[in-house]
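Minutes, project check-in
Item: structure for the 375-residue chain
Input as provided by the requester:
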Amino acid sequence: MQDRGSENGTPGMLPPRMQDTAPPRTEDTPSGRHRRARRTHWGLRIGVVLLVIAAGLGVGAVRYYDWCQGASGPRQPVSFEVAEGASGSEIVHRLHRQDVVRCGLVSTWLLRRSGLEGDFRSGTFELTTNMTPDDAFAALTTPPEPVPTVRLTIPEGYRLTQIAERVQEDLGIPSAQFLKALRREDWALPPYLPEDAVSAEGFLFPKTYEFVEGDVTAEDVIARLLEQFQIEAESLPWENAEDLGITPYEVVIIASMIEEEAKLQEERAVISGVIHNRLDIGMTLGIDATLLYDDPTPDGQLSFSDLEFDSPYNTRINGGLPPTPISSPGLASLQAALEPADTEFFFYVLCGEDGHHAFGKTDAEHEANRVRCGE
């Protein structure tokens, strides 16, 4: 029997087999542990580099944040307007575009942190370039210090002398000084108060006003009250004056008489209708309030001799209108003068403590009303 070696042609030797153990390592062959260590070493290097970069960015961000909160450089005036309803971010970005603050984004964040986003006041503000965000926000959100003011109330139906007394009481301007200012200046308010008018009577509008305490003159008061008349008059139908055959100045004269005669709001237009009816037929007005304006014995009462007093304000003996208004009419009386009631009445008499009048179409009706009302 042949052995295995002779069968393979190599007498006495076994066939080759897989090596049972790994080949010996050489110094040039790195182990797995060394490769892991090298990767860890590079990871540390990259981490350190990223950390340095992050620290640098952080320092830069802090410095930029601090820079955005500051301000430097020349300051130039900036007229800055805040519209009603403008958002906080919109306002901040406009501040940035106009060089009021350094940064837009950071300033927006500062605004939100401050809690002032909803406190901006609308209007025009005088700012400068190179302001800090805090200063700019304060200028746009802080209301101005209240200015001490004093009130002046002019009741409806006051004449110039009464207004002068009230000005002295409320504002400390001597009444004589106030009346002198009225005479000295050429006060006019076309087309209502013509330039050739002899007086501003009737045009110092009755209302409550506020003036800066201790910083107002007689001229300031007169100008303000005349301005208010113009403001109020804009709402009235002045085109009716031409249809009624009267001028705007004569409208105020009629309104001043209505103011003195009417005690109830619902009677103003009716009394106006009576006045216009009488004017249309050339009948004397017979309104005693006009004579009281020029009362020869100014005690608030009219004697029989007063009724015969020869004065242009005596509408018992003179036809047409008195030469000037006799008081300052309110808006309701001005309206009634321009929109008289369409009525057939020519007479009225005060009847009752509530201030209402009894109206009549004829002399007979009027005499009956006088008896009934106890005149």
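Outcome recorded: The chain is about 45% helix and 10% strand.
No further action items on this chain.
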